[in-house]
Amino acid sequence: MTPNVFRRLSGTPDATKLCKKKTAVVFLEYQNEHFTGQLPTEAAYAVVAPAVALLNWADKHKIMVCHVRHLAKSLASAVFAPESAGAAFYPELAPRKTHAVYTKYASSAFAGSLLHTDLESAGIDTLILAGLDTPTTVSATAHDAKLLGYKTIVAADLCAARDTVSWDKNRITKGDQMNDIALSAIADKYAQVELAAAIAALELV
User: Fold this and answer.
1) Distance between terminal CA atoms of the chain?
2) Phi, psi of 118, rounded to the nearest 5 degrees
3) 3-state secondary structure of 65
4) Whose C-alpha in 84, 92, 130, 172 is 20 to 30 A from the C-alpha of 59?
């Protein structure tokens, strides 16, 4: 028997069109730490080209774009230390002149940042989320976005997850499995999940 989808039971419809003035693309943690640093995500490189394409689409249609980076609070941190190479944006996905940049200090993009305040001030009610990695940052942000009342779409092919040691420390759970399970959980509970091309193909008003 096919399981029920929680979002359907709660009456949450999928978006069929986007209002350009009320939509924002939010890029999460496209930072070197996930590419060449201490948290390598093998599939991260595969998201670069479609992520650039989504940025180009957003810029073409004058849709707000926000980049959210993660920083540790200590310069001595082994990961995401302020001013470290690992904390820098991956060059091809670095913010452009018209893009906004936010800093977070926990998994969710809303944690310790002014993101929600600025989105609210701009009249944004719909978010397109994409980033690294899916089980933590993307999931936490999608969860918080729902609580804050946003309509949210996650670009599945712009997300990835790293290999993770299992809870019993006896196995390695592969990143593609982690990513698939996380996207399925997000789609069930928090947000619409689509390929980036399908998002870009939605009617714009």
Assistant:
1) 38
2) -70, -40
3) strand
4) 84
Across the chain, the runs of DSSP E, i.e. the strands, are 17-18, 23-28, 64-70, 100-104, 126-131, 151-155, 164-165, 172-173, 192-194, 203-204
Structure-token pair, residue 88: 């820098």
DSSP, res 4: P
Per-residue DSSP letter, 19: -
**For the whole prediction, is pTM greater than 0.90?**
yes
As a whole number of angstroms, the distance between CA 172 and CA 117 comes to 39
- CA 99/CA 142 separation, integer angstroms: 20
Q: What is the pLDDT of residues 43-55, one digit of tens each?
A: 999 999 999 999 9
Q: For residue 18, give both structure tokens.
A: 């986007």
Strand pairing category for 17-18 and 203-204? parallel
Q: What is the C-alpha separation between 146 and 140, in angstroms, rounded?
A: 10
Distance CA 36, CA 52 (A): 19
- What is the rounded distance in angstroms from the CA atom of residue 154 to the CA atom of residue 129? 5
Contacts of 201 (CB under 8 A, 6+ apart): none
